[in-house]
């Protein structure tokens, strides 16, 4: 961990502290950990399935992408073993002390994966509408004291790789297979 990472952490954790901002950051950091947040996410997911078309494709891609993203983050946190700032630094995290690994931020990775999948399916416009989501969630994790900026950056990159990368690769492979005539259709049938 670099000195710059720690300075950036304190700049956000202490420098941005404001009474009006703290509840917003706690909400962004923990919304999907609450029952209402999970029910809301499930209802949105079901709605996307019901809509069909690209919305359904987006909803269906989210499940495996988020599972792989979470599992990769858990593996990397255990393998790297970096302590969270609320453990390693003399601070008190706003949302309590977490003792699991710090790098990468799974919250940042998941939100970046969501935007990556949306961008792969709907294009650049989806990115322009949704890029704020991983940015705000990632910053909230620093603000509440449970991740360093490099944890969040690593999460963003990992999530984007899985979200946009995997879906774009799959779409490319499918398009390529459809455009390449199969051997049986190229036979003239004459024997």
How many separate helices? 10
User: What kind of oligomer do you see?
Assistant: single chain
Residue share in helix: over 70%
Could you tell me how far the N terminus lies from the C terminus, measured between alpha carbons in angstroms? Answer: 70 Å
How would you state the average pLDDT, rounded? 89
Indicate the overall shape.
globular
Low-confidence stretches: none
Number of domains: 1
Q: Which structural class best describes the helix and strand composition?
A: mainly alpha
Order of helix and strand elements from N to C terminus:
HHHHHHHHHH
Largest sheet: none
Assess the beta-strand content as a share of residues. Answer: under 5%
Number of strands: 0
Rg to the nearest angstrom? Answer: 20 Å
Give a short summary of the structure.
The protein has helices at residues 3-13, 21-30, 35-51, 53-80, 85-88, 106-122, 124-130, 132-143, 149-179, 183-186.
What is the topological layout?
Elements: H1 3-13, H2 21-30, H3 35-51, H4 53-80, H5 85-88, H6 106-122, H7 124-130, H8 132-143, H9 149-179, H10 183-186
Helix pairs in contact: 2-8, 3-4, 4-6, 4-9, 6-7, 6-8, 6-9, 8-9
Task: Name a few traits of the molecule.
191 residues; mainly alpha; 0% strand
């Amino acid at each position: 961990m670099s000195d710059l990472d720690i300075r950036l952490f304190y700049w956000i954790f202490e420098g941005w502290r404001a009474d009006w901002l703290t509840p917003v950051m706690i909400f962004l950091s923990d919304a999907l950990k609450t029952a209402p947040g999970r029910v809301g996410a499930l209802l949105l997911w079901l709605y996307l399935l019901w809509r069909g078309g690209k919305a359904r494709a987006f909803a269906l891609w989210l499940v495996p992408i988020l599972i792989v993203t979470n599992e990769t983050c858990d593996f990397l946190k255990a393998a790297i073993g970096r302590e969270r700032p609320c453990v390693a630094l003399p601070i008190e995290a706003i949302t309590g002390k977490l003792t699991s690994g710090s790098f990468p931020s799974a919250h940042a990775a998941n939100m970046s994966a969501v935007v990556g999948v949306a961008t792969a399916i709907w294009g650049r416009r989806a990115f322009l509408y949704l890029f704020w989501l991983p940015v705000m969630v990632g910053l909230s994790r620093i603000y509440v004291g449970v991740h360093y900026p490099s944890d969040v950056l690593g999460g963003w990159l990992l999530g984007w790789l899985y979200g946009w990368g995997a879906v774009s690769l799959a779409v490319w492979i499918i398009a390529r297979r459809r455009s390449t005539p199969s051997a049986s259709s190229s036979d003239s049938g004459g024997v």
